[in-house]
Design brief:
- It is built from 10 helices and 13 strands.
- The chain starts with 7 loop residues before the first strand and ends with a helix.
- By secondary structure, the chain is of the alpha/beta class.
- The strands form 3 sheets. Strands 1, 2, 3, 4, 5, 6, 8, 11 and 12 form a 9-stranded mixed beta sheet that branches. Strands 7-13 form a two-stranded antiparallel sheet.
- The radius of gyration is 18 Å and the shape is globular.
């Protein structure tokens, strides 16, 4: 009998991110993930773009409605947990549209990476590598992972945050944008370890009652994989965020202090360019889906 193929799912909650959606979908499809998106209260053309991509089989998506005072991501994660895509996933990653996972081991896909690293753990954390504006002042339509190539030192404290790839996500009752929590299983079982990309254990998970979002700065590692986080993009893009509450906690995060901590450009990081030829092939394929290019440009105009 043939073995059922392993299913890897990536999920992102977003609002009015249509200008950046197409690249993000192409990136994760290139890595071998199935893609699911949750949106709320969009004013751009992203729902139409998502419809177009869904009809062509590139992703699934849903709309959700946060209750009064509820952070949109909390609403999205509640809705996501009820979806059949999540219930049947062998592995799931939750990330944002400005986060691009880069593997340094295996064949470049999520399946190849797990073949190389093993599967004897419950979750693996990928630390951020935060990218600065690279000197870009104004927004311009283009591939984010090609426009922004400058970062700070790998050990910069903001990189202690991570996003986690989790086995059998349905065994968790709650999800945050960084990791799941409220685990139904036995944390003491060796196969339920939560590890970083060097397979070192992250002990904080064992209390199980609250989400874990970061390690200490001395634990930051990009040895076998990294989560490229294009959190600033251009100055104009960052200015659009200023004064808006974050979707994860309804806090005023996008301040001058936030900008200074992440807009580090002292080093060049070309890790994403290892995928150049492969990405270009997927990018050419997704852009010729009927209606996609028109809707992408409408989203850029909206932005």
């Amino acid at each position: 009998m043939e073995q059922t193929p392993e299913k890897h799912l990536v999920f992102a909650a977003m609002r009015d991110e249509g200008a950046f959606l197409l690249e993000w979908v192409a990136w994760y499809r290139m890595l071998g993930f199935e893609v699911m998106v949750g949106v709320n209260d969009c004013t751009d053309h992203s729902p139409q773009l998502l419809d177009c991509l869904a009809r062509a089989g590139w992703l699934t998506w849903f709309a959700h409605s946060p209750s009064e005072g509820q952070p949109p991501k909390a609403s999205a994660h509640e809705a996501m947990r009820r979806r059949p895509e999540m219930q049947t996933a062998d592995w799931m990653l939750i990330c944002d549209v400005d986060e691009f996972l880069v593997f340094h081991r295996g064949d470049g896909t999520v399946r190849g990476y797990l073949d190389d690293m093993g599967r004897d753990f419950r979750g693996m954390a990928f630390h951020w590598r935060c990218f600065g504006n690279g000197g870009w002042k104004r927004y311009r339509d283009g591939l984010v992972h090609r426009q922004f190539r400058r970062t700070g030192a790998p050990g910069n404290g903001v990189n202690a945050n991570f996003k986690m790839l989790v086995r059998n996500p349905r065994d968790f009752n709650r999800f945050s944008e960084h990791s799941p929590y409220m685990f139904d299983g036995d944390w003491t079982a060796p196969e339920n370890r939560m590890v970083d990309c060097e397979r070192r254990g992250i002990a904080k998970f064992t209390d199980g009652k609250h989400p874990v979002r970061f390690t200490t700065p001395d634990q930051i590692t990009h040895a076998t994989a990294q989560m490229n986080h294009y959190v600033i993009r251009s100055d104009e893009s960052f200015d659009l965020k200023r004064g808006k509450p974050s979707a994860s906690a309804f806090k005023d995060r996008y301040t001058d202090r936030f900008y200074r901590a992440r807009n580090r450009n002292g080093r060049k990081d070309l890790s994403a360019m290892a995928y150049e030829a492969w990405f270009d092939a997927v990018w050419d394929e997704i852009r010729v889906v009927p209606g996609v290019s028109r809707l992408h440009h409408l989203c850029c105009a909206d932005y």
